Fold this protein.
Amino acid sequence: MTFVIGASCVDIMDRACVEECPVDCIYVGGRMAYIHPAECVDCGACEPVCPVEAIYLDVDVPEDQRHFVTENARFFTEPLPGHTEALGSPGSAAGAGELGVDTVFVQAYSK
């Protein structure tokens, strides 16, 4: 299991979760943040600090937001718009910096 960021994060970008994450696995896109599924150690530190309750264990994501499980993984495994290679596992969100781009789904997402 891993944690996933859902729809409530889109266009909010509070970043309390980024500051709280002890393993630096929450990456900042353009409209939302993404948790790297291979880097997350499932500690849960990010979940209670999210002011919009957008963070879930992947098995607890509400049914109407299940596509965000795929999008969190896709952010790292497929090339993002304007890029030719996938982000992969940089090992440090701080080292990667704010990426300013989202998956195609999140770019088009409407609440």
